[in-house]
Amino acid sequence: MAGERLLLIYNFDCYLENMTNPVGVLERLYVWLGHERFVRSVFAFGSEPCRYSCLPIRPLADFETFLDGVRPDGPTPPATLTCYYDNKCRVLGNDAKEPDRMFSIIRERFRIRPMSPPDARFLRFTIVGNNGASDDAP
């Protein structure tokens, strides 16, 4: 992960992230990277930053503003960003389905290149260009 930035389409709303089955993906990543590196290089958005402990998850309201900066001349060039979407995320008692909605917004705004099999738990992908914009990406 040297210098890599991660966009995680994943948050505490995911089914596996609950009190009866705490996978702890975000917590494990936070502990492994440390606070400063997590804040600098991990982009996770959600309406709830806390479960048993609080993490520096960015407010869901900032998601589209963040995406505005995902461009070659922006604060987050696509070439520096690796994205993960939890293919198995299910929301309990929440019709909003934040991760699914975030992934839909990304697919509306950008062309993506999957980097893992479609049935993988975490779909790894990169952003290769804006939808509707011409570039050299396939």
How is this structure best summarized?
With 138 residues, this protein is α/β, with parallel strands linked by helices. 25% of the residues lie in helices and 26% in strands.
Walk me through what this model shows:
- This protein has helices at residues 25-33, 35-41, 63-68, 98-109, and strands at 5-9, 17-18, 21-22, 42-46, 58-59, 81-86, 110-114, 122-130.
- The chain is α/β, with parallel strands linked by helices.
- The model is unreliable at 133-138 (pLDDT under 50).
Order of helices and strands: EEEHHEEHEHEE
Measured by DSSP, the beta-strand proportion falls in: 25-35%
Low-confidence stretches: 133-138
Mean pLDDT: 81
The total number of structural domains is 1
Shape: globular
Radius of gyration: 15 Å
Strand order of the largest sheet: 5-4-1-6-8-7
Distance linking N and C termini: 25 Å
Number of strands: 8
Helix proportion range: 10-25%
Number of helical segments with 4 or more residues: 4
Biggest sheet statistics: 6 strands, mixed
The secondary structure category is alpha/beta
